[in-house]
Amino acid sequence: MQFFQKSQEQIRIEQKLQRINAAQQEEKYRKPNPCQVTFPEENFIEMIVQQEGKMIKLNTYRFQATGKPKAIVFMFHGLCAHINHCAHIAQKMAQDGFLVVGFDNRGFGKSEGIRGYLESLEIHLSDCRLFIQKVQELQGNSNIPVFLSGLSMGGMTSFRLAVGGNIPNLKGIILYAPAIKTLFSNLQIGTIKFVGYIIPKYKLIKPKRGQTTKNPQITEDLMKDPYTYQEELLPRTISTITVSMKECESLYRQLHTPWVVIQGGLDKLVDPDLAYMLERESPSQDKTVLYYENLWHDVWHEEEIHDIIPKVLQWLNKRI
User: Which GO CC annotations does the UniProt entry carry (predicted)?
Assistant: First the structure.
């Protein structure tokens, strides 16, 4: 019967999934929301893009640095979110001398566009490059260092922009639970892709609450937030994210930029193994993993963020 014995790796993966699936949001984890601020400036630059023949406006945000900025940190938010979800992090960075900027993705937050619709990763990345270009022009195209940072889909965004190159003065990327390794099988991904092609805008699946954070207070706050996307997820959006996550797995060896990954062991949306896989495969000479065994997916809102922010600031300051 040795033929049917599971390998140590198979056993490890099963145990990992069992631990993740067993983790539940509980009242004992209720803590105040760490994000109690918003970006003080909105629409500091004009971002107009095209969607299906219509011109739409994307909402932009800025936290000015205290004193002359040491560097620019571009923040990118996750799916169904908006950029004010990271305002508490941006505030700490700004107080430490960093200029922090971001925008709400088309169809999310305060930005215009088809609600909840992510037509393609390429279009999203094009919006991000335009934003980076406009901010750097506003800064006089100086040699000020640039860092990219994001949570989940925003982490994927930062990763793909870094791998794609052509970001002037890029000094590093900060990836919070980046969506660059999926927990779905190839069969599941194929099915998702097919449905996204056949019925791209059909309102299909209501986002399941309590899957991103162990803290019920955060879930309740997000459900009351008028700018957090609450409606059914659209098949094309699901397909774009899922397929892009799988594609990222083949790009680890192309990441030469300095990076830090903040990853939790109880992440239900992305594979926690991505942190160490990226560490093993990325040829970058400057790579850091901050791994928290009991951290869930929504790193920006988990209580561990109070420990993470000082470490990220230290990482940034060593690379400017």
Answer: membrane
Q: Are 183 and 270 in contact (CB under 8 A)?
A: yes
The Cβ-side half-sphere exposure at 286, using a 13 Å CA radius, reads 12
Residue 1 has pLDDT above 50, yes or no: no
Give the bridge partners for 309, in sequence order: none
For residue 234, give every residue at least 6 positions away whose Cβ sits within 8 Å of its Cβ, in sequence order, or none.
116, 117, 118, 200, 201, 202, 203, 204
As a whole number of angstroms, the distance between CA 165 and CA 75 comes to 17
- Residues 208 and 215: their CA atoms lie apart, in Å, by 15
pTM, two decimals, is 0.94
pLDDT digits (tens, 9 = 90+) for 23-64: 999 999 999 999 999 999 999 999 999 999 999 999 999 999
Which DSSP helix (H) or strand (E) runs through 54?
strand 54-58
Q: What is the pLDDT of residues 154-194, one digit of tens each?
A: 999 999 999 998 899 999 999 999 999 877 778 888 888 88
Please, which pLDDT band fits residue 76 given cuts at 50, 70 and 90?
Answer: very high
User: How many Å apart are CA 159 and CA 146, to the nearest integer?
Assistant: 14
The answer to whether 127 touches 58, Cβ cutoff 8 Å, is yes
The two three-digit tokens of residue 106, written as one number: 């088309």
Question: What backbone torsions phi and psi does residue 231 show, to the nearest 5 degrees?
Answer: -80, 180
* C-alpha–C-alpha distance, residues 108 and 79, integer Å: 8
| 10 Cβ contact partners less than 8 Å away, ≥ 6 residues apart | none
Cβ 75 vs Cβ 90: under 8 Å: yes
Which structure tokens are listed for 102?
């971001």
Domain ranges of the chain: 8-317
CATH 3.10.180.10 fits 8-317, yes or no: no
3-state SS of 94-147 is: HHCCEEEEEECCCCCCCCCCCCCCCCCHHHHHHHHHHHHHHHHHHCCCCCCCEE
